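Quick one:
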Amino acid sequence: MSEKRDRALERPSAPLPEPLNLACVDSHAHLEIVTNTSPTDPAVVKVLQESASVGIDRVVQVGYSVEQSEWSVQLANLFNNQVLATVALHPNEAPVVDDLERDLSVIEELAKEERVRGIGETGLDFFRTPPELQEKQRYSFRRHIDIAKRNKKAVVIHDRDSHRAVLDVLKEEGAPETTIFHCFSGDEEMAKECIEAGYILSFAGTLTFKNAPQLREALKLVPAEQLLAETDSPFLAPAPYRGHLNTPAQVVRTIRFMAQIRGDDLDQLTWQLSENAERCFGSFKSKVEGE
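Output:
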């Protein structure tokens, strides 16, 4: 992950988009890669302030390793009206850690934190993980599903070149009540299967890429209440800034594009995406202020 992070930080920043009329949520971000700092660094505040200035006033900070999941929890506790956390071992991380059981036990403990609202990103990735490690990846995915169900948290799924296998594992294990396909990458048929199962489909900047017509067709099928929008920042900046450093502010471009493709009223879609995010992850407000 460190090499991938370093490459991301070398990219030019995309300019801020025109603000939305209503506030919304980036449902999947990796701010530690955007800023390459500690959670208390002013660079994190700057990114969150810029995002809020264009209408993205809440962010779900997503885990992919023990160390980075701990970073995510710390961030959510510091910004307790703006940030929630998820924790997990990424499917490419799980097969190569020194002690998988130890790391899974740490994720299990972190899952009990109040501001941890999801287990992810977990799942399967047959693009980067060789066949000899895929069974270990499946085992980790099953364990994460179990952690999500026992802690009554959403599961956030990473799925790359593994659509059928992911759907089969979810069916075999019994999917958590809230199951989110992060950066949905399937076609219309997969979208239909996910919709019928009640899964939430989250779309990222890839939706705007010229080489992704299947995503746009899939998007049209999804009921509004089963949609989320995300950046997966610092990766996947939406067009016309593909290849730039992505930040939560850029999800505004994806939301506008979603409304255009679906023929939705932008304000109505923005409101629905915000409602969906809070239904999936709960309120971003601290317990004191929320009571």
